[in-house]
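Dear colleagues,

For the upcoming journal club I promised to circulate an example of a predicted protein-ligand complex. I picked one with 2-acetamido-2-deoxy-beta-D-glucopyranose because it came up in last month's discussion. The inputs are reproduced below in full, followed by the predicted structure.
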Amino acid sequence: MSFKLSIPLVLSLLASFSAVSAQQCNATSLCPSSAPCCSEFGFCGTGDFCLGGCNPLASNTLTSCMPEPVCQNANLTFSDTSRILSNATYFDGNATKYDWVVNSGTIINSTSGELAMILTEDNGGTRLSSTRYVHYGQITARLKTGRWGGVVTAFITMSDIKDEIDWEFPGDQTTEGQSNFFWQGVVPQKTVGETHGNLSDTFSNYHDYTIDWQQDTLTWLIDGQTVRTLKRSDVTGDDGVSRYPSTPSRVQLSIWPAGINSSGQGTIDWAGGLINWDDPDYKAAGHFYALVESVSVTCADSKSNPSDAQSYVYGKNASAFSPQVTVTNETTVNNGAGSLRALAGANVWTAIGASAVMALGALLV
Ligand SMILES: *[C@@H]1O[C@H](CO)[C@@H](O)[C@H](O)[C@H]1NC(C)=O
Ligand SMILES: *[C@@H]1O[C@H](CO)[C@@H](O)[C@H](O)[C@H]1NC(C)=O
Ligand SMILES: *[C@@H]1O[C@H](CO)[C@@H](O)[C@H](O)[C@H]1NC(C)=O
Ligand SMILES: *[C@@H]1O[C@H](CO)[C@@H](O)[C@H](O)[C@H]1NC(C)=O
Ligand SMILES: *[C@@H]1O[C@H](CO)[C@@H](O)[C@H](O)[C@H]1NC(C)=O
Ligand SMILES: *[C@@H]1O[C@H](CO)[C@@H](O)[C@H](O)[C@H]1NC(C)=O
Ligand SMILES: *[C@@H]1O[C@H](CO)[C@@H](O)[C@H](O)[C@H]1NC(C)=O
Ligand SMILES: *[C@@H]1O[C@H](CO)[C@@H](O)[C@H](O)[C@H]1NC(C)=O
Ligand SMILES: *[C@@H]1O[C@H](CO)[C@@H](O)[C@H](O)[C@H]1NC(C)=O
Protein backbone atom coordinates (compact mmCIF):
# COMPACT_ATOMS: atom_id res chain seq x y z
CA MET A 1 0.00 0.00 0.00
CA SER A 2 1.07 3.50 -0.68
CA PHE A 3 -0.80 6.48 0.58
CA LYS A 4 -1.86 9.81 -0.72
CA LEU A 5 -3.09 12.77 1.24
CA SER A 6 -6.63 13.73 0.41
CA ILE A 7 -7.26 16.72 -1.81
CA PRO A 8 -9.29 18.45 0.96
CA LEU A 9 -6.26 18.22 3.24
CA VAL A 10 -4.02 19.68 0.57
CA LEU A 11 -6.49 22.50 0.07
CA SER A 12 -6.75 23.20 3.76
CA LEU A 13 -2.97 23.30 4.05
CA LEU A 14 -2.88 25.84 1.24
CA ALA A 15 -5.83 27.82 2.52
CA SER A 16 -4.10 28.30 5.84
CA PHE A 17 -1.72 30.71 4.12
CA SER A 18 -2.88 34.08 2.99
CA ALA A 19 -2.48 35.46 -0.52
CA VAL A 20 -2.63 32.08 -2.15
CA SER A 21 -3.46 32.66 -5.77
CA ALA A 22 -2.08 29.55 -7.40
CA GLN A 23 -4.44 27.97 -9.85
CA GLN A 24 -4.96 24.23 -9.65
CA CYS A 25 -4.43 21.98 -12.63
CA ASN A 26 -5.11 18.47 -13.82
CA ALA A 27 -5.48 16.61 -17.10
CA THR A 28 -8.90 18.17 -17.73
CA SER A 29 -8.08 21.65 -16.44
CA LEU A 30 -4.80 22.78 -17.97
CA CYS A 31 -2.64 25.68 -16.80
CA PRO A 32 -2.99 29.10 -18.50
CA SER A 33 -0.16 30.45 -20.65
CA SER A 34 0.69 33.01 -17.96
CA ALA A 35 1.59 30.22 -15.50
CA PRO A 36 2.04 27.32 -17.90
CA CYS A 37 3.54 24.56 -15.76
CA CYS A 38 1.53 22.16 -13.60
CA SER A 39 3.70 21.22 -10.62
CA GLU A 40 3.86 17.78 -9.06
CA PHE A 41 1.34 19.01 -6.48
CA GLY A 42 -1.13 20.18 -9.12
CA PHE A 43 -0.61 23.96 -9.09
CA CYS A 44 0.23 26.25 -12.01
CA GLY A 45 3.39 28.32 -12.07
CA THR A 46 6.68 29.05 -13.78
CA GLY A 47 10.37 28.50 -12.99
CA ASP A 48 10.88 25.46 -10.78
CA PHE A 49 7.25 24.45 -11.42
CA CYS A 50 8.50 23.47 -14.88
CA LEU A 51 11.20 21.12 -13.55
CA GLY A 52 11.09 17.72 -11.84
CA GLY A 53 7.51 16.60 -11.31
CA CYS A 54 5.98 19.03 -13.81
CA ASN A 55 3.04 17.20 -15.39
CA PRO A 56 3.08 17.68 -19.19
CA LEU A 57 -0.50 16.45 -19.58
CA ALA A 58 -1.85 19.10 -17.19
CA SER A 59 0.39 21.97 -18.28
CA ASN A 60 -0.48 24.65 -20.84
CA THR A 61 0.98 22.66 -23.73
CA LEU A 62 2.81 19.35 -24.06
CA THR A 63 6.07 21.33 -24.22
CA SER A 64 5.50 23.67 -21.26
CA CYS A 65 7.48 21.51 -18.82
CA MET A 66 11.24 21.46 -19.30
CA PRO A 67 12.53 18.29 -20.99
CA GLU A 68 13.41 15.61 -18.43
CA PRO A 69 17.12 14.76 -17.97
CA VAL A 70 17.85 11.46 -19.71
CA CYS A 71 18.90 8.29 -17.87
CA GLN A 72 22.58 7.69 -17.27
CA ASN A 73 24.18 4.51 -15.92
CA ALA A 74 25.64 5.23 -12.50
CA ASN A 75 26.33 3.92 -9.05
CA LEU A 76 25.44 6.90 -6.87
CA THR A 77 27.17 6.89 -3.52
CA PHE A 78 27.20 9.33 -0.65
CA SER A 79 30.75 9.69 0.55
CA ASP A 80 30.08 13.43 0.50
CA THR A 81 27.06 15.56 -0.17
CA SER A 82 28.50 17.59 -3.03
CA ARG A 83 26.22 15.86 -5.56
CA ILE A 84 23.08 16.69 -3.57
CA LEU A 85 21.36 20.05 -3.86
CA SER A 86 19.98 20.64 -0.38
CA ASN A 87 16.96 22.65 -1.52
CA ALA A 88 15.15 21.64 -4.73
CA THR A 89 13.71 25.13 -5.09
CA TYR A 90 17.09 26.26 -6.37
CA PHE A 91 17.53 23.52 -8.97
CA ASP A 92 17.95 24.78 -12.54
CA GLY A 93 17.54 21.42 -14.29
CA ASN A 94 21.26 20.78 -14.76
CA ALA A 95 21.61 17.07 -13.96
CA THR A 96 25.34 17.20 -14.67
CA LYS A 97 25.80 19.32 -11.58
CA TYR A 98 23.66 17.33 -9.13
CA ASP A 99 22.50 13.72 -8.83
CA TRP A 100 19.83 14.50 -6.23
CA VAL A 101 17.74 17.35 -4.95
CA VAL A 102 16.21 17.50 -1.46
CA ASN A 103 12.50 18.24 -1.93
CA SER A 104 11.83 18.62 1.76
CA GLY A 105 13.35 17.86 5.10
CA THR A 106 16.95 17.43 6.12
CA ILE A 107 19.91 15.22 5.35
CA ILE A 108 22.98 14.87 7.51
CA ASN A 109 26.43 13.55 6.77
CA SER A 110 27.02 10.27 8.46
CA THR A 111 30.49 9.28 9.53
CA SER A 112 30.73 6.30 7.21
CA GLY A 113 29.65 7.65 3.88
CA GLU A 114 25.94 6.92 3.96
CA LEU A 115 23.14 9.31 3.24
CA ALA A 116 21.13 9.91 6.42
CA MET A 117 17.56 11.14 5.88
CA ILE A 118 15.96 12.40 9.05
CA LEU A 119 12.47 12.75 10.45
CA THR A 120 11.64 15.03 13.34
CA GLU A 121 8.34 16.06 14.86
CA ASP A 122 8.83 19.42 13.15
CA ASN A 123 10.39 18.64 9.78
CA GLY A 124 7.67 16.31 8.56
CA GLY A 125 10.20 13.88 7.08
CA THR A 126 12.71 14.03 4.23
CA ARG A 127 12.40 13.29 0.53
CA LEU A 128 15.06 13.31 -2.18
CA SER A 129 14.52 12.97 -5.92
CA SER A 130 17.07 12.01 -8.52
CA THR A 131 17.75 14.76 -11.03
CA ARG A 132 17.72 12.23 -13.87
CA TYR A 133 14.85 10.12 -15.06
CA VAL A 134 14.82 6.42 -15.86
CA HIS A 135 12.78 5.18 -18.80
CA TYR A 136 13.00 1.50 -18.03
CA GLY A 137 16.04 0.16 -16.28
CA GLN A 138 17.26 -1.60 -13.19
CA ILE A 139 17.58 0.41 -10.00
CA THR A 140 19.03 -0.97 -6.79
CA ALA A 141 19.11 0.87 -3.48
CA ARG A 142 21.22 -0.46 -0.64
CA LEU A 143 19.56 0.88 2.47
CA LYS A 144 18.75 0.50 6.15
CA THR A 145 15.19 1.26 7.18
CA GLY A 146 13.73 2.94 10.23
CA ARG A 147 12.44 0.71 13.04
CA TRP A 148 9.72 2.81 14.59
CA GLY A 149 5.98 2.29 14.33
CA GLY A 150 4.38 4.96 12.16
CA VAL A 151 7.64 5.85 10.44
CA VAL A 152 7.90 4.71 6.80
CA THR A 153 11.08 4.39 4.76
CA ALA A 154 10.58 4.37 0.99
CA PHE A 155 12.51 3.86 -2.23
CA ILE A 156 10.32 4.43 -5.26
CA THR A 157 10.22 5.54 -8.86
CA MET A 158 7.74 8.28 -9.76
CA SER A 159 6.91 9.71 -13.17
CA ASP A 160 5.57 13.16 -13.88
CA ILE A 161 2.17 11.66 -14.69
CA LYS A 162 2.36 9.49 -11.58
CA ASP A 163 3.38 6.09 -12.81
CA GLU A 164 4.95 4.73 -9.65
CA ILE A 165 6.85 1.65 -8.51
CA ASP A 166 7.45 1.17 -4.80
CA TRP A 167 9.53 -0.42 -2.16
CA GLU A 168 8.13 0.67 1.20
CA PHE A 169 9.05 -0.22 4.76
CA PRO A 170 6.61 0.46 7.57
CA GLY A 171 8.83 0.83 10.63
CA ASP A 172 7.15 -1.70 12.89
CA GLN A 173 8.14 -4.55 10.55
CA THR A 174 11.88 -4.83 10.21
CA THR A 175 12.07 -8.24 8.57
CA GLU A 176 10.14 -7.41 5.40
CA GLY A 177 9.53 -4.96 2.60
CA GLN A 178 6.44 -4.13 0.58
CA SER A 179 6.19 -3.88 -3.20
CA ASN A 180 3.55 -1.89 -5.00
CA PHE A 181 2.91 0.03 -8.19
CA PHE A 182 0.56 2.60 -9.66
CA TRP A 183 -0.40 3.51 -13.20
CA GLN A 184 -1.02 7.22 -13.74
CA GLY A 185 -1.85 7.63 -10.05
CA VAL A 186 -4.23 4.71 -9.74
CA VAL A 187 -3.80 1.15 -8.55
CA PRO A 188 -4.66 -1.06 -11.51
CA GLN A 189 -7.61 -3.21 -10.57
CA LYS A 190 -6.02 -6.62 -10.46
CA THR A 191 -3.07 -5.73 -8.32
CA VAL A 192 -2.35 -4.92 -4.73
CA GLY A 193 0.70 -4.29 -2.63
CA GLU A 194 2.60 -7.39 -1.55
CA THR A 195 4.83 -8.15 1.41
CA HIS A 196 8.14 -9.94 1.05
CA GLY A 197 10.22 -10.92 3.95
CA ASN A 198 12.10 -13.10 6.30
CA LEU A 199 15.04 -10.75 6.07
CA SER A 200 17.69 -10.15 8.65
CA ASP A 201 16.72 -7.00 10.55
CA THR A 202 16.33 -4.22 7.98
CA PHE A 203 17.25 -1.52 10.49
CA SER A 204 20.58 -3.07 11.45
CA ASN A 205 21.54 -4.62 8.12
CA TYR A 206 21.92 -3.31 4.63
CA HIS A 207 19.92 -5.12 1.99
CA ASP A 208 19.76 -4.48 -1.73
CA TYR A 209 16.24 -3.65 -2.91
CA THR A 210 15.86 -3.72 -6.66
CA ILE A 211 13.24 -2.44 -9.05
CA ASP A 212 13.92 -4.08 -12.41
CA TRP A 213 11.59 -2.20 -14.70
CA GLN A 214 11.66 -3.35 -18.31
CA GLN A 215 9.22 -2.75 -21.16
CA ASP A 216 7.29 -5.96 -20.65
CA THR A 217 8.23 -7.18 -17.18
CA LEU A 218 8.58 -5.54 -13.80
CA THR A 219 10.53 -7.48 -11.18
CA TRP A 220 11.16 -6.69 -7.55
CA LEU A 221 14.25 -8.28 -5.98
CA ILE A 222 15.82 -8.40 -2.54
CA ASP A 223 19.53 -9.12 -2.34
CA GLY A 224 19.45 -10.28 -5.94
CA GLN A 225 16.60 -12.76 -5.44
CA THR A 226 13.36 -12.20 -7.34
CA VAL A 227 10.44 -11.81 -4.96
CA ARG A 228 7.75 -10.59 -7.36
CA THR A 229 7.23 -10.44 -11.11
CA LEU A 230 4.57 -8.52 -12.99
CA LYS A 231 4.09 -8.74 -16.74
CA ARG A 232 2.70 -5.90 -18.79
CA SER A 233 0.15 -8.35 -20.14
CA ASP A 234 -1.08 -9.00 -16.56
CA VAL A 235 -2.39 -5.43 -16.43
CA THR A 236 -3.61 -4.98 -19.97
CA GLY A 237 -7.38 -4.70 -19.87
CA ASP A 238 -10.06 -5.98 -22.23
CA ASP A 239 -10.12 -2.42 -23.55
CA GLY A 240 -6.54 -2.90 -24.75
CA VAL A 241 -5.17 -0.25 -22.39
CA SER A 242 -1.95 -1.29 -20.73
CA ARG A 243 -2.05 -0.11 -17.11
CA TYR A 244 1.66 -0.62 -16.64
CA PRO A 245 4.14 2.07 -15.52
CA SER A 246 5.62 3.31 -18.78
CA THR A 247 6.70 6.94 -18.45
CA PRO A 248 10.15 8.30 -17.45
CA SER A 249 10.50 8.36 -13.69
CA ARG A 250 12.66 9.92 -11.03
CA VAL A 251 14.07 7.79 -8.23
CA GLN A 252 12.87 9.01 -4.84
CA LEU A 253 14.17 8.19 -1.37
CA SER A 254 12.26 9.18 1.73
CA ILE A 255 11.45 8.78 5.37
CA TRP A 256 7.99 10.05 6.21
CA PRO A 257 5.57 10.21 9.10
CA ALA A 258 2.56 8.08 8.19
CA GLY A 259 1.61 7.59 11.84
CA ILE A 260 0.36 11.09 12.61
CA ASN A 261 -3.08 12.42 13.42
CA SER A 262 -3.67 13.96 10.04
CA SER A 263 -3.28 10.60 8.29
CA GLY A 264 -6.26 8.39 7.62
CA GLN A 265 -6.80 5.52 10.05
CA GLY A 266 -5.90 2.99 7.34
CA THR A 267 -2.59 4.71 6.80
CA ILE A 268 -1.85 4.84 10.52
CA ASP A 269 -2.65 1.14 10.94
CA TRP A 270 -0.60 0.19 7.89
CA ALA A 271 2.38 2.14 9.19
CA GLY A 272 2.29 0.51 12.61
CA GLY A 273 0.38 3.04 14.69
CA LEU A 274 0.96 6.61 15.77
CA ILE A 275 4.59 7.64 16.07
CA ASN A 276 5.93 7.64 19.62
CA TRP A 277 7.90 10.85 19.87
CA ASP A 278 9.10 9.71 23.30
CA ASP A 279 10.90 6.72 21.78
CA PRO A 280 14.36 6.35 23.40
CA ASP A 281 16.03 6.35 19.96
CA TYR A 282 14.35 9.64 19.16
CA LYS A 283 15.22 11.11 22.54
CA ALA A 284 18.84 10.08 22.18
CA ALA A 285 19.46 11.22 18.59
CA GLY A 286 16.94 14.02 18.31
CA HIS A 287 15.51 12.47 15.17
CA PHE A 288 14.43 9.26 13.45
CA TYR A 289 16.45 8.30 10.40
CA ALA A 290 17.02 5.95 7.48
CA LEU A 291 20.37 5.32 5.79
CA VAL A 292 21.20 4.81 2.12
CA GLU A 293 24.61 3.54 1.06
CA SER A 294 24.22 3.53 -2.70
CA VAL A 295 21.74 3.68 -5.55
CA SER A 296 22.83 2.04 -8.77
CA VAL A 297 21.06 2.62 -12.06
CA THR A 298 21.38 0.60 -15.26
CA CYS A 299 19.35 2.30 -17.98
CA ALA A 300 17.51 0.11 -20.47
CA ASP A 301 17.96 2.70 -23.20
CA SER A 302 21.57 3.79 -22.77
CA LYS A 303 22.81 1.72 -25.71
CA SER A 304 19.99 2.59 -28.09
CA ASN A 305 19.90 6.33 -27.39
CA PRO A 306 21.80 8.66 -29.75
CA SER A 307 25.10 9.88 -28.39
CA ASP A 308 23.78 13.45 -27.99
CA ALA A 309 20.69 12.33 -26.04
CA GLN A 310 19.87 14.86 -23.35
CA SER A 311 16.25 14.48 -22.42
CA TYR A 312 12.84 12.85 -22.61
CA VAL A 313 9.91 14.81 -24.00
CA TYR A 314 6.24 13.85 -23.98
CA GLY A 315 4.26 13.79 -27.21
CA LYS A 316 0.69 13.01 -28.16
CA ASN A 317 -0.72 9.67 -27.06
CA ALA A 318 0.89 6.79 -28.91
CA SER A 319 -2.14 4.67 -28.09
CA ALA A 320 -5.10 5.19 -25.78
CA PHE A 321 -3.90 6.61 -22.47
CA SER A 322 -0.23 6.05 -23.35
CA PRO A 323 1.68 9.24 -24.03
CA GLN A 324 4.49 8.96 -26.53
CA VAL A 325 7.93 9.61 -25.06
CA THR A 326 10.76 10.79 -27.30
CA VAL A 327 14.48 11.01 -26.59
CA THR A 328 15.81 14.41 -27.68
CA ASN A 329 18.94 16.52 -27.58
CA GLU A 330 17.02 19.46 -26.06
CA THR A 331 18.50 21.05 -22.96
CA THR A 332 16.99 20.43 -19.55
CA VAL A 333 18.42 23.61 -18.05
CA ASN A 334 15.86 26.25 -17.18
CA ASN A 335 17.87 29.43 -17.51
CA GLY A 336 16.81 32.09 -15.07
CA ALA A 337 14.72 29.64 -13.07
CA GLY A 338 15.43 31.56 -9.90
CA SER A 339 14.38 34.95 -11.22
CA LEU A 340 11.08 33.63 -12.54
CA ARG A 341 10.13 32.06 -9.27
CA ALA A 342 8.74 35.31 -7.93
CA LEU A 343 5.73 35.05 -10.24
CA ALA A 344 2.30 34.12 -8.94
CA GLY A 345 2.12 30.53 -7.89
CA ALA A 346 5.73 30.10 -6.98
CA ASN A 347 4.99 32.27 -3.96
CA VAL A 348 2.88 29.54 -2.51
CA TRP A 349 5.82 27.28 -2.01
CA THR A 350 8.06 29.82 -0.46
CA ALA A 351 5.22 30.74 1.89
CA ILE A 352 4.62 27.21 3.07
CA GLY A 353 6.80 25.83 5.83
CA ALA A 354 8.87 22.73 5.34
CA SER A 355 6.54 20.47 7.25
CA ALA A 356 3.54 21.46 5.17
CA VAL A 357 5.57 20.87 2.06
CA MET A 358 6.51 17.42 3.27
CA ALA A 359 2.92 16.67 4.09
CA LEU A 360 2.14 17.53 0.51
CA GLY A 361 5.14 15.47 -0.47
CA ALA A 362 3.46 12.46 1.07
CA LEU A 363 1.12 12.65 -1.89
CA LEU A 364 3.89 11.08 -3.84
CA VAL A 365 5.27 8.55 -1.49
C1 LIG B 1 -9.57 19.37 -12.28
O1 LIG B 1 -9.44 20.69 -11.81
C2 LIG B 1 -10.66 21.43 -11.87
C3 LIG B 1 -10.32 22.87 -11.50
O2 LIG B 1 -9.61 22.93 -10.31
C4 LIG B 1 -11.66 20.78 -10.93
O3 LIG B 1 -12.89 21.47 -11.00
C5 LIG B 1 -11.88 19.32 -11.34
O4 LIG B 1 -12.72 18.68 -10.40
C6 LIG B 1 -10.55 18.60 -11.40
N1 LIG B 1 -10.77 17.27 -11.95
C7 LIG B 1 -10.26 16.20 -11.38
C8 LIG B 1 -10.52 14.92 -12.09
O5 LIG B 1 -9.63 16.24 -10.33
C1 LIG C 1 27.94 0.67 -5.76
O1 LIG C 1 29.02 1.15 -5.01
C2 LIG C 1 29.11 0.60 -3.70
C3 LIG C 1 30.20 1.33 -2.96
O2 LIG C 1 31.37 1.34 -3.71
C4 LIG C 1 29.35 -0.90 -3.79
O3 LIG C 1 29.39 -1.46 -2.51
C5 LIG C 1 28.18 -1.51 -4.56
O4 LIG C 1 28.42 -2.88 -4.75
C6 LIG C 1 28.04 -0.84 -5.92
N1 LIG C 1 26.82 -1.34 -6.54
C7 LIG C 1 26.81 -1.82 -7.76
C8 LIG C 1 25.49 -2.32 -8.24
O5 LIG C 1 27.80 -1.86 -8.47
C1 LIG D 1 28.87 17.34 4.63
O1 LIG D 1 30.12 17.10 4.02
C2 LIG D 1 30.41 17.95 2.92
C3 LIG D 1 31.76 17.56 2.34
O2 LIG D 1 31.91 16.20 2.40
C4 LIG D 1 30.42 19.40 3.37
O3 LIG D 1 30.62 20.23 2.24
C5 LIG D 1 29.10 19.74 4.00
O4 LIG D 1 29.12 21.04 4.52
C6 LIG D 1 28.77 18.77 5.13
N1 LIG D 1 27.42 19.04 5.62
C7 LIG D 1 27.12 19.05 6.90
C8 LIG D 1 25.68 19.36 7.21
O5 LIG D 1 27.91 18.79 7.78
C1 LIG E 1 25.78 22.18 -16.09
O1 LIG E 1 26.69 21.97 -15.05
C2 LIG E 1 27.98 21.59 -15.53
C3 LIG E 1 28.81 21.18 -14.32
O2 LIG E 1 28.73 22.15 -13.32
C4 LIG E 1 28.56 22.73 -16.32
O3 LIG E 1 29.84 22.36 -16.81
C5 LIG E 1 27.64 23.05 -17.48
O4 LIG E 1 28.09 24.19 -18.16
C6 LIG E 1 26.23 23.31 -17.00
N1 LIG E 1 25.34 23.40 -18.14
C7 LIG E 1 24.53 24.44 -18.37
C8 LIG E 1 23.74 24.40 -19.62
O5 LIG E 1 24.41 25.35 -17.58
C1 LIG F 1 13.07 -17.66 7.49
O1 LIG F 1 14.45 -17.95 7.39
C2 LIG F 1 14.89 -18.90 8.36
C3 LIG F 1 16.40 -19.00 8.28
O2 LIG F 1 16.82 -19.06 6.95
C4 LIG F 1 14.19 -20.23 8.08
O3 LIG F 1 14.59 -21.18 9.04
C5 LIG F 1 12.69 -20.02 8.16
O4 LIG F 1 12.03 -21.20 7.80
C6 LIG F 1 12.25 -18.90 7.23
N1 LIG F 1 10.85 -18.61 7.47
C7 LIG F 1 9.99 -18.42 6.48
C8 LIG F 1 8.61 -18.10 6.88
O5 LIG F 1 10.31 -18.48 5.30
C1 LIG G 1 -3.53 12.86 18.18
O1 LIG G 1 -4.60 11.99 18.51
C2 LIG G 1 -4.49 11.45 19.80
C3 LIG G 1 -5.58 10.43 19.97
O2 LIG G 1 -6.81 10.95 19.59
C4 LIG G 1 -4.57 12.57 20.83
O3 LIG G 1 -4.40 12.03 22.12
C5 LIG G 1 -3.44 13.56 20.55
O4 LIG G 1 -3.55 14.67 21.43
C6 LIG G 1 -3.48 14.03 19.13
N1 LIG G 1 -2.31 14.84 18.89
C7 LIG G 1 -2.35 15.99 18.24
C8 LIG G 1 -1.05 16.67 18.03
O5 LIG G 1 -3.38 16.46 17.82
C1 LIG H 1 -4.02 10.57 -23.53
O1 LIG H 1 -3.50 9.96 -22.37
C2 LIG H 1 -3.75 10.69 -21.19
C3 LIG H 1 -3.04 10.00 -20.07
O2 LIG H 1 -3.53 8.72 -19.88
C4 LIG H 1 -5.24 10.81 -20.96
O3 LIG H 1 -5.47 11.63 -19.82
C5 LIG H 1 -5.91 11.42 -22.16
O4 LIG H 1 -7.31 11.37 -21.98
C6 LIG H 1 -5.54 10.66 -23.42
N1 LIG H 1 -6.11 11.32 -24.56
C7 LIG H 1 -6.65 10.65 -25.55
C8 LIG H 1 -7.15 11.45 -26.67
O5 LIG H 1 -6.69 9.41 -25.53
C1 LIG I 1 19.98 18.64 -31.94
O1 LIG I 1 20.05 17.86 -33.11
C2 LIG I 1 19.68 18.58 -34.27
C3 LIG I 1 19.60 17.63 -35.44
O2 LIG I 1 20.54 16.59 -35.31
C4 LIG I 1 20.72 19.68 -34.50
O3 LIG I 1 20.37 20.44 -35.63
C5 LIG I 1 20.70 20.60 -33.27
O4 LIG I 1 21.70 21.58 -33.38
C6 LIG I 1 20.92 19.81 -32.00
N1 LIG I 1 20.69 20.70 -30.86
C7 LIG I 1 21.45 20.69 -29.77
C8 LIG I 1 21.04 21.61 -28.67
O5 LIG I 1 22.45 19.98 -29.68
C1 LIG J 1 14.06 26.10 0.26
O1 LIG J 1 14.17 27.43 -0.13
C2 LIG J 1 12.96 28.16 -0.05
C3 LIG J 1 13.20 29.52 -0.65
O2 LIG J 1 14.25 30.18 0.00
C4 LIG J 1 12.52 28.20 1.41
O3 LIG J 1 11.31 28.91 1.54
C5 LIG J 1 12.31 26.77 1.90
O4 LIG J 1 11.96 26.78 3.27
C6 LIG J 1 13.57 25.97 1.70
N1 LIG J 1 13.26 24.59 2.01
C7 LIG J 1 13.93 23.89 2.90
C8 LIG J 1 13.52 22.48 3.09
O5 LIG J 1 14.86 24.36 3.54
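Two points we might discuss: Residues 69-301 form a domain with the Jelly Rolls fold (CATH 2.60.120.200). The pocket of 2-acetamido-2-deoxy-beta-D-glucopyranose (ligand 7) is lined by residues 27, 57, 184, 317, 320-321, 323 (CB under 6 Å).

See you all on Thursday,
B. R.
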